[in-house]
Write the structure tokens for this entry.
Amino acid sequence: MQRDPQGSGAKIRGPDRKRYRACLPASASISQADADVLLPGDIPVKAWCLNSGFWEPCAGVPVEDRGFRYGMSVFETVAIWGGRAAFLDEHLDRLARATNSLGWGAAVPGIPDCGRDATGVVRIYVTAGPGHPGDAFCGSVYALFEECEVGTEFPAVRVASSPAPYLPRPGGWKTGNYWQNVDALAEARAAGMDDVLLFNPSGALVCAGMANVFLEVGGVWKTPALETGARDGVVRAWVREQMPVEETLLGPDDVAQCTACFLTNSRVGVREVSEIDSRPLATDVAMLQKKYRELLPCRSGTSPFP
């Protein structure tokens, strides 16, 4: 496969391109086959692997990789806004801390160029690589870009508390094993809700299905402490820079007593919660959402384009 020294997601050429196209759905056009993977629903996703310090287009993760076989991977989701990566340094720092805890000391040098006007999310995965379950963490690196809305005013959501104990990964790192999150989220949506609140076996609130969570209890904004297994998300950290937030242990009683709630992650930014467990809330974080949208271009990494 021809290497792209600029990491720009260049077209796949020669035999690699032919093999790649053969794996795509019949609906994929030739141009899509050049550099895009089609997920169900024709969602264009660009994929790269890191090879000797260079990002190269790839068709997917090898089936022998333990990230695919056992979910042995860590990742970060980075918002891309007009071709620029938001909070990139913060994301790379968290990824480095996660991989260091797994015994892989190398650093991910950055992300591939997703396109001059690209807006969406790029997920950087560091997998365990090939080998047996007990072998050392090898550190194979992949990046996937998905075009989507980011940081906009998404509609408020209704959430439900999950009765199933949630077992977060020690350290709160984002791992490739999201089965618990997805299963709880699917159950909530089947019941007519939009998202779900997850509690660890001790009964402490950890997070929402795919986001950090903030509750207003007794007029004080609070968020689950990291010791519960909550993730140290970059938007969570940004919110704590903008207003007083108490990091503490929260339980079902706090959820039942809260008067407002919002969720945060890299894609949605700050998202209001209008209802918890069928109880209406009076959440209004419009000003915080506005500050986040206005700040995104300023907090983004340097654009690779002039």
